[in-house]
Amino acid sequence: MLNRKALVAAFTLFLTMALPAWAYGAAVFSIGSTVFSMGGSEQSMDVAPYIDNGRTYLPFRYAAESVGVAPGDITWNPATSQVILATGGRSIMLTVGSKTLILNGVAIPMDVAPEIAGGRVMLPVRFLAQALGVDITWDSIAKTVTIGEMVMPVSAQPGSPTTVPDLSYDSVVQTVARDFTWQYQGRTFTWHVEAPRDLLDWDRQVNQLTEEYYSGQYAQDTLLESEPDEITNLVQADSVQEGGDLAPWVNEGDNSQWSGYLADRLALCAGSNGFDYFHTAEFIQSFVGGAIPYQLTDVPELPVQTMIDNGDCKDKSILLAAILESLSYRVVLLEFAPGPGETAGHMAVGVALDDSQIPQGETLSYFRYNGLKYYFAETTAPGWTLGAASDQDPAQVYDVN
């Protein structure tokens, strides 16, 4: 039986004390308080952070100024209900009531819209971090939000690699690190990624349990009785009875949150390189397909394990879907039937896009599902592009959003 109690304790420490960082500890905001700490001194503001429907909202202007943005770099247009930040290499536009954040010209969907409170534009911390390019740590016990220093996106000089912002942790968390290199649009990208060892070990144990369950090494009734629902739901998702619907593997809580950290850094790099909504998705596809070697596996892997141990089409599709979903792309998993003489099928990802988001002059491959156009995203090898032609229709479509 998996030692969930120990893992929960480890994750509690991980979530409340040592979120991955680009920089640390510039300002601390408290829920319900109009006083925040910046550089050790107290500052006042005219609106307090609050929690609404499980979301923690901070005032955009005060959060930006707390990490070094000059007041003159932020403008408010009451006619359009837009707030615009322009400083250094970063341009941000938010519109009250709109679920689209414009970062360096790239439209980034959000699942909530900025709102007005106390005369200030308020934004949930998840999207505030993505907009400002900062680490934001939430302490659920103290009800505080700590914001790190702002990191300006810097494009690489011609001919030199572009570095994606590191995903790293405080020394309190034991991690496993890996460095990635891949190509996109003729440019080389590099990335240093760390993963919590406890989460990686748990992923590997889930994978091993799943393999034992279907190989007959593990009494199935025993597993169903001894493991918690979160484990059995993952294991059984790969069954014939469930139709091989691996959406639960995309949405597993701790891996999904970690995939969000990956997504934030990839989106920041995409924005600093001028990639639009379509090419941001394709850029992320190029990472999964090009930086992670293909390695055949018998049963699915969760995202952290795939990042460290490699994986095949199902594993890399789970990872790609988890990253894109964190950025509010609407995605599905696609299962293809085995070809002639083959015993195993194939898995890829479908990404929903509007006609306005497709590059002009491009003829791309898609299929319709629930009234939307989904474009094929292969992950097996380098060089695949979003919407590259598929020679067959998917046998099954699994909605993960």
Largest sheet: 5 strands, antiparallel
Please, how many helices?
Answer: 11
Oligomer: single chain
Q: How many angstroms does the end-to-end distance come to?
A: 30 Å
- The portion of residues assigned to helices is 25-40%
Strand arrangement, major sheet: 3-2-1-14-13
Calculate the mean pLDDT score and round it.
Answer: 84
The CATH class of the largest domain is identified as: Alpha Beta
The number of domains is: 2
Radius of gyration: 22 Å
* Residue fraction in strands: 25-35%
Based on helices, strands and strand pairing, what is the structural class?
alpha+beta
Number of E-state strands: 22
What is the correct CATH architecture of the largest domain?
A: Roll
Overall, the morphology is globular
CATH fold field value of the largest domain: C8orf32 fold
Unreliable sequence segments: 1-25
Please sum up the structure shown:
The chain is an alpha+beta fold.
Describe the structure.
The model is unreliable at 1-25 (pLDDT under 50). This protein is of the alpha+beta class. The strands form five sheets. Strands 3-2-1-14-13 form a five-stranded antiparallel sheet. Helix content is 31%, strand content 28%. It has two domains: 23-147, Copper Amine Oxidase, Chain A, domain 1 (2-Layer Sandwich), CATH 3.30.457; 196-399, C8orf32 fold. It has helices at 4-17, 60-66, 125-132, 197-215, 220-226, 229-237, 247-251, 253-272, 277-291, 303-309, 313-326, and strands at residues 27-30, 35-38, 41-44, 50-52, 55-59, 74-77, 82-87, 90-95, 100-103, 106-109, 115-117, 120-124, 136-139, 144-147, 162-167, 175-184, 187-196, 331-336, 346-352, 366-369, 372-377, 396-399. The radius of gyration is 22 Å and the shape is globular. The longest helix is centred in the middle third of the chain and has 20 residues, at 253-272.
